[in-house]
Design brief:
The protein has three helices and no strands. By secondary structure, it is mainly α.
Length: 77
């Protein structure tokens, strides 16, 4: 299990460095937020993680902000 955690952290570090090389800081924040949401979904499926109201509210804020950020870029094209 320790090795899997190390490999996951290494892959996340490489992904963050690639994002920072080709994008700005706001994209890094959004990608981290989306990664947390994906991790939560996997935790619910695999480990029976119990979600709270605070998580749902936070997840909705993140999802709406990612959508609005993406929609702004599409309109400029």
């Amino acid at each position: 299990m320790k090795y899997a955690l190390c490999i996951c952290s290494i892959c996340c570090g490489i992904a963050v460095s690639m994002v920072m090389k080709y994008a700005d800081n706001i994209v890094k924040v959004y990608s981290t937020s989306v990664a947390m949401l994906v991790t939560t979904v996997v935790s619910v499926c695999l480990f029976s993680f119990q979600l709270t109201l605070a998580f749902f509210l936070g997840a909705n804020v993140v999802a709406v902000s990612v959508y609005l950020h993406s929609a702004g870029k599409l309109q400029r094209l």
